[in-house]
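sorry for the late reply, my laptop died twice this morning and i had to redo everyting from scratch. anyway the thing you sent over, i finally got around to it. pasting the sequence first so we're on the same page, its 416 residues, then the predicted structure underneath. double check i copied it right bc i was rushing
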Amino acid sequence: MREHPERTLRAPLGGLRVCLDLGVSTAQARPALQRPRSAVVGGVSVALARHLGWPVRRVRLILVLASLAWGAGVLFYCWVWMLTPFEGPAGPPRSGAAADAPEEPRRRAPVAAILLGVGAVATVVGVILANGGSSTLAAVTFAIALTGGAAAWSLAFDDSDPLRSARYVVLVRGFAVLVFLLGGILLLFSGGGRPDAVTAVLAIAMLVLGLGVALAPFVVRLWTDLMAERAGRVREEQRAEIAAHLHDSVLQTLALIQNRAGAASDVGRLARAQERELRDWLFAGSSPVGVDLAQELRDVAAAIELEYPARIDVVVAGESVGTGTALVGAAREAMLNAARHAGGEISVYVESSASGVDVFVRDRGPGVDLDALPPDRLGVRESIIGRMQRAGGTATVRPGAGGGTEVHLHLDEAGP
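ok and here's the structure:
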C-alpha cells in the first residue's frame, strides 16, 4: 500500500520531465531568424513565418493591420529588416573567386516603379488641389516622399539586383526627375502664377530634389571612387610599412643565410626560394598585371633553383616585351643545362630593343664543346639552336669571357 503514493508521485514528475525535454528540443529545433535571398520585397514576412512556424499570409496580415495603427507595422518591418541577416547562399557550393562573393538578393516586386507610380499620382492630385485653391501640404508631401523613395530604392537596391536591368534603373531615375521637375513647375504656376506660401515652398523643394536625383548617380560614383582610392592608399601605406620592417629583418636574414651557405647548399636554395616568394608578395601591387618575358624567365629560374644547387639572377634592360614560346623554351633549356652541369652562380641578361630581343645565359662551369657532344645529345642542338632557328631567330653557344659557357639567343621583334 505504501508503494502506490510513490508511483503516483513519480508519474507526474516523469511526465513533467518529458514535457520539459520536449519543450527544450522544440525551442532548439526552431529555425534561425534569417531573411531569404529571394523575396518579394525584403523577406521579413517569410523570415518571421519560418521562425515562428506560422503561415506567411498570417504574418503579412498582422503586419498590414499593425501598419494601420500609426505605422507601427511599417516601423516593425523596417526594424526587423535592418537587424536580420540573410540566409546562406542557395544552390550548390561555388568554387574559386565566386565562393568568396556573396550572392546578391533578388526582389520580385518592382518596388521603385510602384513607388514612382503612386508618387506621380499624388503629384497630379497636388497640382489639381493647388489650382482649386485647396491645401496641397499632404498631397505634395506624400508625392515627394514616394518619388524620393523610388529614387533612393533604385540607387540602394536595384543597381545590385540581378532581376533589374540597367535600362530599368535608368528609366526609374529619369521618370523620378521628370516628376519632380514637372510637379515643381506646375505648382509654381498654379493659381494664375500666384501660389500660396506653402505651395511655393513645396514647389521649390521638388525642383531642388529633381536636380539632386539627376546628379545623385554621379555623386555616388564619385564618392565610391574616392573611398576606393582612399582604401587603396591605406593598403599601400600598410604594405610599405610591412615591407620596410621585413626588409630590415627577414629579408636581410635570408640574404645572409644565402651568402654563408652558398648556392650549392640546400639551406641556401630554400632561403633564396623564400626570399623570392616574400618579395613577390610584398611588391605584387607594383608589378604589371600581364606576364611578360622577364617575369616568365624569373618564374623559370625560381622553379630550377628548387631542383638544382644553383643561383640564377635575372637582369632586364629595356622595355617590357611579351612572351615568346620559342624564346622562353630555349632560355629554359639553357638555364636548365647550366644548373644541371655547372651549378653555382648563373646569370641571365635580357635586353630588348627596336631590332629584337636578346637573352644571354652565362654560367661558370667547365664549358661545353658542341663538336665533342655525342649525336644522341639533342638538348643543345634541338631544344636551343633548332628551336630558335625554326622560330626565325638565332642561338649561339660559346665559351664565356671568364670561363664557363655563354648561350646567346636572339629573336627579331616580329618573331613569335
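The CA atoms of residues 123 and 143 lie 5 Å apart.
thats about all i looked at so far, will dig more tmrw
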